[in-house]
Amino acid sequence: MERAARLLTKLKSKNLPLGQMVCAAWPEAVGKTVARNTRAVDLAGTRLIVEVESMLWQKNLHGMRHQILRNLRNFVDTAVTDIEYRVAIPRRPPARTTERAESAVPQTLADDAAGIADPLLRKLYLASGRRGA
Asked: ∠43-17-80 over CA atoms, to 5°?
């Protein structure tokens, strides 16, 4: 709680818009577990938009919205009156580096690809070789 108070004091001193302050207070208002599976995105009028991982999270958090709103008001003086939970599109994991991709193809294919100057075409050539193998 003390850490959150320090964070919000810093945010207020930077004169951030209310929406950013509410989004920054979200993890402290809901706790670690919920914060790992959700993300406050924006403040639309008096409604806080929150992305959730699944419909199950959406349903469970909807029932807790009054408690969460009360917690948010403890951190930020705000007129947030409702929370809208949206199921987020799953994020893609980081792309593998080209070194790893090239090591997964036969050496002759990698040698041939070395002669291709354009990096995008080289990557496409290597990818097509992996599918064909």
From this structure: 35
Please state the pTM of the whole predicted model: 0.58
User: What is the C-alpha to C-alpha distance for residues 93 and 37, in angstroms, rounded to an integer?
Assistant: 16
- Of the chain, the end-to-end C-alpha distance in Å amounts to 56
The DSSP H or E segment spanning 13 is helix 2-13
Burial 19-46 (b: 16+ CB within 10 A, else e): bebbbbbbbbbbeeebeeebebbebeee
**Between 89 and 58, whose confidence is greater?**
58
The 10s digit of each residue's pLDDT in 69-107 is 999 988 887 778 999 999 988 766 666 655 554 455 567
Arithmetic mean of pLDDT, 105-129: 80
Taking alpha carbons only, the member of 85, 71, 84, 90 closest to residue 31 is 71
- Structural domains of the chain, ranges and CATH numbers in brackets: 2-87 (3.30.300), 98-132 (no CATH)
Cβ(92)–Cβ(126) under 8 Å?
A: no
Find out whether 26 and 36 touch, Cβ atoms under 8 Å.
Answer: no
